[in-house]
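About this split. The held-out portion is used to measure sequence recovery: a designer receives only the structure tokens and must propose an amino acid at every position. Recovery is the fraction of positions where the proposal matches the reference. Here is one held-out target exactly as it appears in the evaluation file.
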């Protein structure tokens, strides 16, 4: 992406005050190059195989799985996560077996985004790949696809198929008990599914949350800098962007360009992944082509 300026923040008033999506503010970014998709299971598995890396979910021995997706023997189920009972702590859930260690050892689809990935895991992958996590401002600029002020990467057309077109992988039905899978997916979809935005990026909203480099602060936009802003380095939590397959207006209305969330850097769950950007800014370089699944 070439150097650009854009209006960052929630132009429609959709966000929660605690998320800090306002005030709107102008941001200028230097050129950067960003992955067309979230890092896939195949890509993360290659990193782990070549380096011997043990992810946080593997190291802790447990991770959070959405209750409708759990595929594990009873002895592997720890129980509901306090405060969010639709999340179940499952022993043996990680990027290889995202639903849990089922008797048939269901493996993650290599074309889907890698999940159960902590911020620390994403940083380790970036170090191996010679890349980095995007800043929050870079992520939002890329997600907007050149359409300033729009709610979604494609503009303001509905996301939910009400006009006959599904544009992202989000919840359909009554959260959290029933997902009709009207868009074809209950959990993750392939990383390159649905139409890309104007910059060639796939699924920046819906599917999986994506880690950003920034520390989270609810008042970050109130004290922003205009050029290449970055969140506080010492924050307890890190920024997540884009929403996931669990987002629904009744529960998580953050599946938008401006939507913000956060979690601690060692947190792992079945709906969080990441994409990367280049270390060196070079406006002559195109967007990163989609990598082959075995790459």
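Reference sequence for scoring:
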């Amino acid at each position: 992406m070439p150097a650009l300026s854009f209006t960052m923040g929630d132009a429609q008033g959709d966000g929660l005050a605690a998320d800090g999506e306002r005030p709107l503010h102008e941001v200028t970014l230097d050129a950067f190059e960003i992955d067309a998709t979230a890092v896939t299971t195949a890509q993360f598995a290659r990193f782990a195989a070549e380096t011997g890396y043990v992810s946080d979910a593997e190291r802790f021995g447990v991770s959070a799985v959405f209750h409708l997706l759990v595929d594990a023997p009873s002895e592997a189920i720890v129980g509901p996560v306090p405060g969010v009972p639709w999340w179940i702590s499952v022993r043996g859930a990680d990027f290889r077996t995202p639903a849990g260690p089922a008797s048939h050892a269901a493996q993650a689809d290599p074309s889907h985004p890698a999940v159960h990935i902590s911020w620390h895991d994403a940083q380790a992958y970036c170090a191996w790949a010679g890349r980095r996590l995007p800043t929050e401002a870079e992520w939002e600029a890329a997600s907007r696809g050149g359409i300033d002020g729009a709610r979604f990467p494609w503009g303001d057309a509905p996301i939910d198929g009400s006009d006959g077109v599904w544009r992202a992988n989000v919840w359909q039905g009554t959260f959290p008990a029933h997902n009709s899978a009207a868009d074809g997916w209950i959990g993750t979809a392939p990383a390159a599914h649905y139409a890309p935005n104007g910059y060639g990026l796939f699924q920046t909203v819906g599917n999986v949350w994506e880690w950003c480099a920034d520390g989270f602060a609810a008042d970050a936009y109130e004290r922003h800098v205009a050029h290449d802003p970055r969140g506080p380095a010492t924050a307890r939590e890190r920024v997540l962007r884009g929403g996931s397959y669990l987002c629904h207006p009744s529960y998580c209305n953050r599946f938008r360009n401006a939507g913000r969330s956060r979690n601690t850097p060692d947190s792992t769950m079945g709906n969080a992944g990441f994409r990367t950007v280049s270390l060196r800014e070079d406006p002559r370089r195109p967007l990163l082509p989609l990598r082959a699944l075995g790459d």
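Annotator remark: Confidence is low (pLDDT under 50) at residues 282-295.
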